[in-house]
Structure of Aminopeptidase N:
Amino acid sequence: MDIRTDPTTPDDNPEMADAAPEPKEPPLIRREDYRPFPWLVPEIALDFDLGLEWTRVKARLTVARNARGDRADTIRLHGDGLEPLSVAIDGTPTDGWTMDEGDLILPLSGDAHEIAIETGVNPSANSQLMGLYASNGMLCTQCEAEGFRRIAFFPDRPDVLSTYRVRMEGPRAQFPVLLSNGNKVAEGEASDGRHWAEWHDPWPKPSYLFALVAGDLVARSDEFTTMSGRKVALNVWVREEDLPRTEHAMESLKRAMKWDEETFGREYDLDQFNIVAVGDFNMGAMENKGLNIFNTKYVLADPETATDGDYDAIEGIIGHEYFHNWSGNRVTCRDWFQLSLKEGFTVLRDQLFSQDLQGEAVKRIEDVRVLRSVQFPEDSGPLAHPIRPDSFREISNFYTATVYNKGAEVIRMMRTMAGPEAFRAGTDLYFDRHDGEAATCEDFIKAMEDGAGLDLGLFRRWYSQAGTPKVSAELEHRGETATLTLRQYVPPTPGQPAKQPMPIPLRLALFDRETGAHRGEELVVLEDEETTIAFAGFSTPPVLSINRGFSAPVSIERQVPRDDLVFLAAHDDDAFARAEAMQELVVGHLVAAAGEGLDAKGRGQGQDAIAQALAAVLDDDRLDDTMRGELMVLPGETYLAEQMLVADPGRIHREREGLKRWLAGELGDRLRALHARASAVPYSLDRGARGARKVKTLALSYLAAGDPDAASELAAQQYDAADNMTDRQGALMVLCGLDSAARTDRLIDFYRRYEGNALAIDKWFSLQAMSLHPAAIEHVKALREHADFTLRNPNRVRALYMAFAGNPHAFHAPSGEGYRLIADLILDLDPINAQTAARFVAPLGRWRRIEPKRAALMRAELERIAAAPGLSRDTREQVGRSLG
Ligand code: 0A1
Ligand code: ZN
């Protein structure tokens, strides 16, 4: 039951809410306090009597003393908003239990018992979308991290592993499909049009991997034969009208299954694999054993409604959840501090999968862009934490870019240092050693040391220290020798004022200016605070290409002559490094322009160098368009702000837009020619056609900065000619930033065309919220009143408000209105969906790095939130940390 449906809780009763004392600060949970659970629960049988408004749950647990745990004469079963309707021990009903903060405490005297508890929940009242909830007439569950305790009393912690037997019964007309983990072992008819199914999962698992789905669904079905010749039945379950949009998800799943066999030697281990798409979901997807539950956004695709980016995201997330079957499910986490054990590793696995399918360089550039724009700001702000945190109050707040993406980078560094083959030996050993266990990050590191032959002694610091290391690189040339001096510095972060140096693997190459070639790439591991390396045999000063492939998640700080960057942008044979040089060139210019400022001469030189490099990118016919597109993308405003101690978002925005305008003026003919060439390429999902679509919209957005009227016409043409969502969305994105009649017409057209298609309408909300239009705030204020807007659907909330919070010129409006809008949202959403509400705190939390006027306004909004009564644990923790 959702706690807010219980009339005795203060939330529901205004008088009590007034009288209730301010909730005390939720307790801090520390990694060092870990103790094994005193009881094992080898088996659990669950019996569900299903209903949208009332589902009765009977749980039968077999428990036995855990020889590794402390001796206890009670057992604590977690509960959140549950009431025990009946309790029995070894078949005898008892009322000898007590409740403590929602948990049920039972006395247990012997070494082994059977506990039976009955309880019930109201799935329709569950707006938090944790536990058992109703979405669009179907029932589904989300248990990670601590949702199972909202369904049944249970030791809801990842180190308690049980085999699950699940029986469910309900009206056939309402719930024709009944799914749970593992294999279906029996099914049948019951009286009054009811039916039932029984599922058994032979693999012991923690409660967070439990899942149940009941609804009116249809499946796209297929089959996969594993490397040992077993046949696995595959199903993607959706609402009937969505069936035509499931092909890509199914093909992605089959590719993922094959790839994991070939690349990591991992085979699937059940007779069936089910994916269910649900429209109301807090995150992207969930890896429940044998029954993955997905946000519809990451399942449904066809050319008419999904962009190329959507296709890629679906492939990556289907892979991610599937890969969890080994990295997460077969080997799970001992406690939630180890979250990166499964998430960092699985993100790396999904990145490598997508890299193999989509091409290494472009995927790497995109992954690094995400890291820099989302994780770097986290690492330099008040919410910074190590990939293995030391403490938390609410674990939902730690599903972060740090745990996921930086976690992946840390494991990627091990792979870089070991090489792919030794790395594979390490992962083989890890899976062998810990199969069926709840493991720790330390277990993974040890397996890498033993299996891959690495010494990770000091490297462990990457797990315990937060903050993005800064590495300065100075190259000196004397006589025939080039000397490289590398220095590292890890900035202080909350709770960690002083840092120690960490091993940093840097792939680097020195280019000969004359020949344009280098003598081979080297891997240098910077172990100490400072290292000097001499390279002999250079009669002229070489050009340094460093951190190639982004071999370490650090920020490189160096003074490079502009000519060297132009050289690398044109000559580097590492595609990633080439894009880096291009970025460095632009970042250097914009940071100078938006910071201390540039005189006319400096500005002119900077702009010329960028125009020269961009012209080379546009002219180079050896480049394919997907890569050309990456080279055309200007660094984002958040990343630019990140390069400055204190940033003025208004100036950054003006300078970046100004540069775009200037480039469009200089390179207008080329950009128009590119748009025309790309527009002639017919739609397909081939790399060439996808690349053409990418550069087409990029060219358009430059042109829009240069000549808005002409671009408006071109964008309207692109919109009208579009036979796919990539072109249509791209055109509408550009139009949304312009003040033209075409903007209004096409927005109306888009809405009418896709009315009723939630995912497409989400795009319609987002495009307006992230637009360059000066009145974007007004648009967002109108959209929150739109009949299709609701706080109950996380996708819709994110579509409007995350897009807005990521739109610097609007979010950082000097009036502070953007901050107020987000704070109002947090306060309105918190009682409905605390997990989603808490995610909006981070943008306000960056105040320390923003110029003083805006910073004060941001802080004031955080204080307004903090003062509100009855805040959730999720939001309270994030606001508290942000105010610091
Ligand atoms: N383990 C999932 C992410 C996830 C986490 C929490 C959730 O609760 C709402 C849902 C999903 C993954 O990494 O894909
Ligand atoms: Zn994951």
About this structure: The pocket of O-methyl-L-tyrosine (ligand 1) is lined by residues 142, 144, 282-287, 320-321, 343, 399 (CB under 6 Å). The radius of gyration is 28 Å. The CA atoms of residues 160 and 800 lie 39 Å apart.
